[in-house]
Amino acid sequence: MTLREKSVREHLRAVYGTLALGLFTATLGAILHIFTKFFEGSLFIFFLPILFMTILSRTPHSHENERKRLMYFLGFALFSGISSGPLFQRAMDVDRSIIMTAFLSSSVIFGCFTLAALLAPSTKYLYLGGTISSALVALFVTAIFFHSEFMHTVCLWGGLAISCALVLYDTQLICEKRRRGDNDYVWHTIELFIDFLNLFDYIVSILKEKKVSFPYFNMIHNSANDL
């Protein structure tokens, strides 16, 4: 059980504290895009998160660089939020409740799979690495070569399932890295941040598709709520 190890517990405390700060920063970025149309229509905005992540990866992990690397991570989080803004805006145009529902759902799912990884034997889910890689390749090929409404739905739900598996895998991988002396909590936070953001994006897309595909059901549901 991972939580019994003091060094791992302290490392996870730093990782999840930084993750919370990153998610807050990403939220500010998404709000900035939605209400100010910051960088609207600019492809450059999609490269900024990659730029910050590359700079962070090339900055050595040391006590002297800790604050600098944290700023790079927050820059990555901010522009990740801004680049996700168009998806959130389209979802809000369909139904404003989608974003909050997706965030709560993502938080619950992320929390449950995180606990499952932490409470399980320390290397139980590390074998998922090969399966996840194969599934990602299959999903990528499907998205490129098969264009139909059914396959689009398959890709959304498949992506959601892979995102859940990645939470299990990355959580245990981070713990295993710490056991082997890797205490780079900022880089480990990026791995979980990407997992959460992907999970959130997939749930937003699924909820948006549901609202668009079943308008009659949603009308009845909303009328029942009004009563």
Automatic annotation (TrEMBL):
Quote the subcellular location field of this record.
Membrane
Could you name the Gene Ontology cellular component terms for this entry? mitochondrial membrane
Q: Its Gene Ontology molecular function terms?
A: enzyme binding
What topology does it adopt in the membrane?
Answer: Multi-pass membrane protein
Q: Which residues cross the membrane?
A: 12-35, 41-58, 70-92, 98-118, 125-144, 150-169
Q: Does Transmembrane count among this protein's keywords?
A: yes
Instruction: Mention one GO biological process in which this protein takes part, according to its record.
Output: negative regulation of RNA splicing
The UniProt keyword set, sorted, is: Membrane, Transmembrane, Transmembrane helix
What organism is recorded for this protein?
Dracunculus medinensis
Task: Spell out the Pfam families in the cross-references.
Answer: Bax1-I
Entry's family note: Belongs to the BI1 family.
Task: Please give the superkingdom of this protein's source.
Answer: Eukaryota
Indicate what this protein is called per its UniProt record.
Answer: Bax inhibitor 1
Q: Which residues form the signal peptide?
A: none
